[in-house]
Design brief:
The chain is an alpha+beta fold. It has helices at 9-22, 47-53, 83-92, 98-104, 119-133, and strands at 41-44, 58-64, 70-77, 107-112. The protein contains 5 helices and 4 strands, in the order H-E-H-E-E-H-H-E-H. The longest helix has 15 residues, at 119-133. The model has no long low-confidence stretch (mean pLDDT 86).
Length: 161
């Protein structure tokens, strides 16, 4: 049985400002001692592995290469616990970019988001994450209002499917 990878120090350092800004919208698990645990789920960038390890239906995810460089930032907000793994499979199945993604995306960090966030709030969280991490791939990230703090995302009404 393989163990889950740990968060590499360089990636943890890169994620620190993201976690600070997104704290109000993250789904932070409690530890057995009752303290807040880390919201970051780290796993190999494989759809099957992600489906087993990530149960969030709404999340921001970051793909990293083998040199710990940020390759891609995306978000998902769908029904069902396999949403992140399903979205990763779609990326890998892309007609033109799929092969490149499968070979360069080595590690995935997933930031599960609080239940009930609107799709707009999820997209804004993605936009802020991309702005802070400056991924090498992908350029269609949502624009962010630089005057809007992420704390205001909590107050956005949930979108009814």
């Amino acid at each position: 049985m393989s163990t889950a990878p740990t968060l590499p120090a360089a990636i943890g350092q890169a994620l620190r400002p993201v976690l600070r800004l997104m704290r109000p919208v993250l789904d932070v698990p409690a530890t057995p001692e009752g303290r807040a645990g880390s919201p970051v789920v780290v796993c190999r960038a494989s759809p099957d592995v992600v489906r087993r390890r990530v149960a969030a239906s709404c999340a921001v995810y970051v793909a990293w290469d083998n040199r710990r460089g940020c390759r891609y930032v995306g978000s998902v907000c769908r029904q069902g616990p396999g949403a992140v793994g399903d979205r990763l499979a779609e990326h890998y199945g892309h007609r033109t970019a799929g092969v490149s993604r499968r070979t360069s995306w080595c590690l995935l960090t997933v930031l599960p988001l609080s239940e009930g966030l609107s799709l707009e709030a999820v997209r804004v969280a993605e936009g802020w994450t991309a702005r802070l991490l400056n991924p090498a791939d992908g350029s269609a990230h949502p624009r962010v209002d630089l005057t809007q703090t992420l704390a205001t995302l909590v107050s956005l009404p949930a979108q009814v499917p």
